[in-house]
Structures are given as structure tokens and as C-alpha cells.
Amino acid sequence: MGEEADGTDEVADLFRALGRQIRVARERAGLSQKELGERIGYGEETISSVERARRTPQPELLAAVDRVLECGGLLAAAAEDVDRAKARRRVRHPEWFRDYARLEAEAVEICFYSTLTMPGLLQAQSYARTIFTARRPCLDEETIEQRVAARLDRQEILTCWPPPMVTAVIEESVLHRRIGGREVQQEQLRHLLKLAELRNVEIQVLPLECQGHAGMEGPFILLTPKGKPQVGYGEFQSVNRLITDPDQVRMLALRYGSIRGQALNPAESSALIAKLLGER
């Protein structure tokens, strides 16, 4: 996969340059990453990721930073360059995942049932990095960073317009599992609460006391691409399968409906997540 052919190096250089400009302007204003994020409506993690060129600097973010830090339009003017760069950039998903990623990017509805880890589309950056670092056989550092960047790029569909409708049923045990340690776990739970505030995202928790349910055969994803039939997707160890058979997809949809019916509703789920954070 030659980088010369897809302009990846040039794109990375642009994002690094913008990240440095944001950092210099922020430090000149005497603001921390958290303080800047609070002023423009973004999380500290997002500001940090953009400054380190680990996340695409969205035009809206550039415009907001330009205004707050009084950059005289320099950052806002870079928005068109970013849009062109995004069009050229090839997200480096593993080959086996690319078919799913293409369908997800054009989906109008995505449904997750997760039993071991958070759905990739809902993962905080540090959580995602922990997942890829823990892979065996081990991934090299460059590949880990590429995979994390690709996962974060996928998440942009949550706030684009029009956004897909995203529902997720997450086993309560996933919330308790301290992947990456307590700090990473807490960051992930805060990230879930923030996502749950989006109008197009509904997060439900399947409680531990649930004695039996239709998802006991394992996790799966359902997605509906625009103008196309709904499909299913499943991963088990090194086996990854896109499910297109109508009868099998219908079976998964029936199971998902049953699981959602047994899960806590979105408000109850957010209350439980907040309780685990010690916020209630």
C-alpha cells in the first residue's frame, strides 16, 4: 500500500501543521486543552488529538478555534484544504473490515449488541488504543496509531448531517470491565454519557440480573445502508462475517428487538452509567 499513491504523507503533514498552529495559539492565550475545549464545545481529548494530528481537524472546530483564539481567519481559511485532504485520504482499515466500513459510512441506521467491549463507533480514544495494543499477535506502534485514527475517523458519522440513527445495547458487565485501567474506564463512561446526549444516539444497558435473553449466542451488528437492504455483521476471534442472507438478517433483527425490550431504557441506562462514575 504505497503512501505516494494516495497522498497520505501530504495529508498527515497538513494535519500536523494545523495541530501545531492550534497548540501555539492556545498556549499564547494561556489556555489548557481542557479550557479551550470547554470554550468551543469540544472535549479535552478531541483538542489533544487534533493538536497531535491523530484526529482530523474538522472545519467547524477550526472556525471555532480561530474565533476564540483570535487567529485572524488563518485557521478558518484552512477548512477548504482540510476538506480536500479528507477526500484524498484513504482510511487504513484492515482489508477484511473494508466492506463493512463502506456500508457503515452510508448507513441510515446502525444497531449494536455488545457483550465484551464497547462498540468501536462509541469508543473513546484511549479505550480504542488499549484494545489495539492488547491484540495478539502484537501490532506494531505505527499500525496501532493507524487503526486508532481510522476508528476515530469513522466516528465522524455520528455528528455529520444527516446522521444515522444509532442504537446500542451494551451488557452491563462491559461497563464494569476496567479495560486500560480505572482512568481509561472512567473516560469511556463519560464518553458514553456525552454520546447519549446526541438526538440520533440511544444507548441501553442490559442489566446483570437479566436471567436469560436472545443475545446469548454472542454480539452482532445490524446496519441499514441508504437505499439498500439491512445487513448483519459479526466478529469472532479471527472470523469476520458480513451477513446478507435475508432470513438470517431477519433473525438477527428479531433477536435485537427482544434484547432491547429486556434492556434498561436510555434514561435508566444513563443513570446507571452516571452511578458507576460516582456522579449520582
CATH architecture of the largest domain: 2-Layer Sandwich
The global form is globular
* Rg calculated over all Cα atoms: 20 Å
Instruction: Tell me the span between the first and last alpha carbons.
Output: 49 Å
Q: Briefly note the structural class of the backbone.
A: alpha/beta
Strand content: 5-15%
The arrangement of helices and strands along the chain is: HHHHHHHEHHEHHEEEEHH
- The total of beta strands comes to 6
CATH class of the largest domain, named: Alpha Beta
The overall pLDDT, averaged over residues, is 88
The largest beta-sheet arranges its strands as 3-2-1-4-5-6
Low-confidence segments? 1-7
Tally of discrete structural domains: 2
By CATH, the topology of the largest domain is Endonuclease, Chain A
Largest sheet, described in full?
A: 6 strands, mixed
Helix content: 40-55%
Helical stretch count? 13
Secondary structure: elements and pairs:
Layout: H1 3-6, H2 8-28, H3 33-40, H4 44-51, H5 59-68, H6 79-88, H7 98-105, E1 107-114, H8 125-133, H9 141-154, E2 165-171, H10 172-176, H11 182-196, E3 201-206, E4 220-225, E5 231-236, E6 239-243, H12 246-262, H13 266-277
Parallel strand pairs: 1-2, 2-3
Antiparallel strand pairs: 1-4, 4-5, 5-6
Helix pairs in contact: 2-6, 3-4, 5-6, 8-9, 11-13
